[in-house]
Amino acid sequence: xxxxxxxxxxxxxxxxxLDQQDVSILPNAAKLRLLEAQRCIYLEIQEQQVxxxxxxxxxxxxxxxxxxxSESGFRAIHDWAKSAEQTGEAVNGLLRxxxxxxxxx
Amino acid sequence: xxxxxxxxxxxxxxxxxxxxxxxxxxxxxxxVDRKYxxxxxxxxxxxxxxxxxxxxxxxxxxVTREDLFTLDDRAxxxxxxxxxxxxxxxxxxxxxxxEDSTExxxxxxxxxxxxxxxxxxxxxxxxxxxxxxKSQSKKLIASLSGFSKxxxxxxxDKKIVEILIGAHPFIEQAASLLYLDIGTPKDQSxxxxxxxxxxxxxDKIGGLRLCRGGVRGLMKAAVASNQQTWKLRLQLANLNxxxxxxxxxxxxxRLHDLEQFGRQQDHSMKMLQEALVRMVSAHHQLATAFSKTxxxxxxxxxxxxxxxPDPVSEFSAQVESLSQTAKRMDAFFDTSTPENNE
Lengths: 105, 342
Known about the structure:
The complex is a heterodimer of chains A (105) and B (342).
Chain A: H1 3-19, H2 28-55, H3 57-68, H4 70-104
Helix pairs in contact in A: 1-2
Chain B: H1 12-56, H2 71-96, H3 116-119, H4 134-182, H5 214-239, H6 245-293, H7 311-329
């Protein structure tokens, strides 16, 4: 068991002990201390659990950059399409010229 | 002599697959992003409930707001999810936006492909009736207008294969990272692990024994903490004989609602993890289908275990259903909640 797992185990045990407390026998000040202790334990558990998420943030950046590299490929397709359109316009002109010639025959 | 109409242009099956995968990726990105939001809301509600009860008992608790996720963490996740959406939208625009490819509009990152002029060619525009019959005229226009398409399509299709194969490792890594981020609500074994890197192979990720943590672990703890405060409220209500039965009923209802909410959220996030694995399988299937149609010399794809004979439509259907149910359940904390004491 890693030290992090051990820390989580201790925190869970602490949380369970607090949760088992019977508030009916506690004076008001103790109730408040119980609630504050529950809040602190809860925040510590969340801190432990969120650590691996935070540790991956840099990795996300690298993968995002890698995926964005595909944009140059899409850009190339865009440029080819533009060039094809120009060809299409040339074809269009050719057709008009051709139709004129054919109509004169 | 005229060329007859060439069978050039997008393959309808591939068009359907590109559309399916794009819709699936887009819905998945939105749903995953929403899970971080709803977990943050569950955390905030848990803290607020605890703090409000302390105030009600006459205490003066620390009210410093402590978010679960840093802005940096969220920004990095939003960036990858957005990159996935842009990527899939570009795929649609470049291949499937219009089946006859007369007009293709690209997404925000790449402007519209200018192919519209070809669609404007009409027989009536050309008076060739003096020498050609209608059928011959039709063939003339089909052959000439198809000329530039003939030059464009093969280049485009080869490039799409290259894009799909080049992007695949990053799609897989993104899925791995998000899967690990979603995590698990409890240790999956005593020798559990929490891998941080994206190089976990997606078809082996289900076999990992994860330690409790990630978004599912955070959500479980937030719901448990909130429930615990409600249980204290119930005990206090029972101590006070004057507390109305309706108040106790409301507390019991809230406890039940939270129980159901926590169970549904965990199930939904588990399904999201499955959908992430399916996304990789679907993308792999798409790349394979494209490379069979337009073979190019590119490195082979890493094998991904297939869950079904049609992973693309299965992925799309699963995400659509998941997205609809998640949208409903994620609104749990959006309305005025008892935790806010409003």
